[in-house]
Amino acid sequence: MLAAWQRLGATPGVTPGRLSRPWRSEPVGVASAAWFTNAVGELLVELAPEELLAVLLRIEAELGRDRASQGENRPIDLDLLLHGEVVLDLPHCRVPHPALARRRFVLEPLRELAPDLVEPRSGRTIASLAELAAASGQKLDPLSW
Hints:
The strands form four sheets. The chain has a three-stranded antiparallel beta sheet with strand order 3-2-9, covered by helices on one side. Strands 1-4 form a two-stranded antiparallel ribbon. Strands 5-6 form a two-stranded antiparallel sheet. It has four helices and nine strands; from the N terminus they run αββββαββαββαβ. A hairpin with a 4-residue loop joins β7 and β8 (124-125). By secondary structure, the chain is of the alpha+beta class.
């Protein structure tokens, strides 16, 4: 995770901001005995959403992610969650991330960074979305770096 953060910082047009603490989460929707580690990072970017997504996919590949193989145990998974107030629905790039409002393992670290941020599709704050997602019962454990 930190290797991806460092690579983002070395990318022209991308300046890393704050990084949430890591959160361990039980797997949801995949058959894996291992829990996942999640974090959310804030980036200042001069890139369009599609360009930023291409950077994320490149970094995943550099760190050993094979997207052709849909295996549950992947070394890294980088998602573009939000891009300011942009709402974009392209086949290869959807912003905000289409599952954002249902993923507690993303919303809790995002709430840590920006609880009052408004998700542009729903018009709800991240804090309110996180409260709704908490009702899912998914188990999370906050960690520290």
